[in-house]
Design goal:
Elements (H helix, E strand, L loop, with lengths): L3 E10 L4 E9 L2 E7 L6 E2 L4 E4 L1 E6 L1 H6 L9 H14 L2 E10 L9 H16 L6 E9 L5 H6 L7 E7 L11 H12 L3 H33 L2 E5 L4 H10 L3 E3 L4 H9 L3 E5 H6 L9 H6 L5 E3 L6 H12 L5 H6 L3 H6 L16 E7 L2 E9 L2 E2 L2
Parallel strand pairs: 1-4, 1-5, 6-7, 7-8, 8-9, 9-10, 10-11, 11-12, 12-13
Antiparallel strand pairs: 1-2, 2-3, 5-14, 14-15, 15-16
């Protein structure tokens, strides 16, 4: 039996315009978009209808699993709590980022990442989840156990994205050692001498491990059809290396030069939505607004605050000249979907999945009122 839902009196954000009208959903797909008034349907009261958000990089699950140092929550319960917050933020497709390769200051073990992946996959099979979940492996190539951790995910069909990371001091995200010191000394409560030894160990690990692990991860991703992302590229040389590895998504480039080189190399440039909302990077790197103004920003990710995606998208359409609301919404819908080959979502048009979000602006803050995934209300 066919299932149909009509949403009327909405401001519908299409690819290149906003229309006032109605939208029909049939069997989980968008059946029709009509401008003007209609008699039938659920009244959206003039609220916006946008595509469901597509999140490529969120570390948020780990915060539910390990909310305090040495505290562990049930993995399935952690996934359910994370999923509920994701969906309530308007995110209908999420790539959950799990660590592969552990820094010495990590409070988790490699096997725990596998347990979380198992909890995600068990919950998908049991139809417990509101959003559509995939796995993103955050590969710390400087870590000696990087490939051991990667092996735990061998042949896992839910792994669709992997990023190449090196968080050792003196490069990429932390070219500024003052910013690195602020982050790690506060986080780990090190004195100056402990911090000096910590930096020396991390730089030595990077020298020993990064190049070979990077090559091994890139080759494994090619063999398994996993899309590859770079992370924190700072120089055109970093970008050339990424291009040679087959990278398709440039995550969080730290400089204007790296972002521009990534665009010119055909990569989609991803930046943090909190960077947009705050007006700058928490690490002192390039402003995402600056990249947006230059036309060098394609995708926004929530990174560590799920609600920041919808907040940043509406904000971007307001504060950056030359970026329309449809273009701003595309940074959290169409563009991330396109970057990872999900061509069935990310746009409101007939035939696409009915992944939709009803949004009302209240004093400039978007309020997520209703979320549908494949036509079924999930938040």
């Amino acid at each position: 039996m066919s299932r149909e839902l009509i949403l009327k009196n909405a401001r519908i954000v299409l690819v290149d315009e906003v229309v006032h009208g109605s939208l029909a959903i049939r069997d989980g797909r968008i059946a029709e978009v009509t401008s003007g008034d209609t008699q039938a349907g659920e009244d959206m009261e003039g609220d916006f209808l946008i595509p469901g958000l597509v999140e490529l990089h969120t570390d948020h699950l780990e915060r539910h699993y390990s909310p305090r140092p040495k505290v562990r929550w049930n993995p399935v319960a952690s996934v359910l709590a994370h999923d509920a917050q994701i969906a309530a933020s308007g995110i209908t497709t999420v790539f959950d980022a799990l660590r592969v390769g552990l820094d010495e200051d990590a409070d988790v073990e490699a096997r725990e990442m596998r347990h979380l992946a198992d909890a995600i996959e068990q919950s998908i099979a049991a139809d417990r989840l509101r959003a559509d979940h995939f796995i993103h492996l955050r590969c710390e190539v400087s870590a000696p156990d990087c490939m051991d951790g990667f092996a735990l995910f061998a042949d896992d069909p839910h792994v669709k994205l992997a990023s190449l990371m090196d968080h050792s001091p003196g490069q990429r995200q932390f070219t500024n050692l003052d910013a690195y010191a602020t982050y790690y000394k506060v986080k780990s409560r090190m004195d100056d001498e402990e911090f000096r030894r910590f930096c020396e160990r991390r730089m030595a690990e990077s020298e020993r491990n990064s190049a070979r692990n990077r090559r091994a991860v890139a080759e494994a991703c090619r063999q398994h059809g996993i899309i590859l992302a770079s992370h924190d590229d700072a120089t055109p040389e970093h970008v050339r290396e990424a291009a040679a590895d087959g990278v398709r998504v440039a995550e969080f480039p730290t400089t204007v030069a790296a972002a521009r080189a990534s665009k010119e190399a055909g990569m989609a440039v991803l930046m943090g939505a909190p960077n947009i909302v705050r007006g700058g990077s928490h690490s002192g790197n390039v402003s995402a607004r600056e990249l947006a103004e230059a036309g060098d920003l394609d995708i926004l990710s929530s990174d560590y605050i799920p609600f920041s995606m919808v907040q940043a998208a509406f904000f971007l359409g307001e504060v950056v000249d030359g970026i329309s609301l449809p273009q701003a919404i595309a940074t959290v819908t169409k563009n991330p979907a396109d970057a990872v080959g999900l061509d069935d979502r990310g746009v409101i048009e007939p035939g696409r999945r009915a992944d939709l979000v009803r949004v009302r602006l209240d004093d400039g803050i978007p309020v997520v009122r209703t979320v549908w995934r494949e036509g079924r209300r999930v938040a």
